[in-house]
Design a protein that fits this description.
This protein has about 190 residues and is mostly helical. It has helices at about 15-20, 30-35, 40-55, 60-75, 75-90, 95-100, 105-120, 125-130, 135-160. Helix 7 packs across helix 8 (about 125-130). The model is unreliable at about 175-180 and about 185-190 (pLDDT under 50).
Length: about 190
């Protein structure tokens, strides 16, 4: 149930969306409509999130796997639905999507789970990540996990509904598919 209705598309302020769109016309989006309820916040947040999404030093696959793990842990249907599409475009396989859902002990899943559970990375995991990522990529990873956790919190709190035609991949806020990680927010998968 939507708690804060999105601003209708015909009332969108293109200047507020400029950090994301660069002036291009974008299709309706319930998330953008939500943000437009607070134009100053929207403009500031879109500047930051555009950096993470389009200018990140992380490989696109790594970024999307991290975002998906955040979305799954937070049970954020909106974030999950959008980023499954982006992940597939970046080459993420169905097997990898299942690993995200199950909380399989991949390096990215473990990193997201630790960051979300203890707001840090253990020395061991940091060292393992450092073998795969440089310093800027590590920074982008940490900021991406934090920012998408915040977005999931906002989307869930304000009841942002899926955009028309979007599929949440079977996610619901109750029981997950049999055999799927159901640890929930703040609880790493076993």
């Amino acid at each position: 149930m939507t708690r804060l209705p999105p601003v209708p598309y015909e009332k969108w302020d293109a200047e507020v969306l400029r950090p994301l769109t660069g002036g291009r016309t974008v299709p309706p989006s319930n998330a953008l409509g939500l943000l437009l309820n607070h134009p100053r916040l929207a403009k500031a947040f879109l500047t930051f999130s555009t950096q993470l999404l389009y200018r990140s030093t992380l490989p696109a696959r790594t970024r999307e796997l991290a975002i998906l793990r955040v979305a799954w842990r937070h049970r954020c249907r909106y974030e999950w639905a959008h980023h499954v599409l982006m992940a597939r475009a970046a080459g993420v396989t169905e097997k990898e999507l299942q690993e995200v859902r199950r909380g399989t002990g991949t390096l990215v899943n473990r990193a997201v789970d630790e960051l979300e559970s203890i707001s840090s990375l253990s020395d061991e995991l940091y060292a393992q990540l450092s073998e795969e990522l440089d310093e800027r990529q590590l920074m982008d990873l940490v900021f991406t996990v934090g920012a998408y956790g915040m977005q999931a919190m906002a989307y869930n709190t304000f009841g942002v509904e899926l955009d028309p035609g979007m599929d949440d991949g079977g996610m619901d806020h109750g029981r997950m598919d049999k055999g799927i990680d159901d640890g929930g927010p703040g609880e790493p998968a076993a």
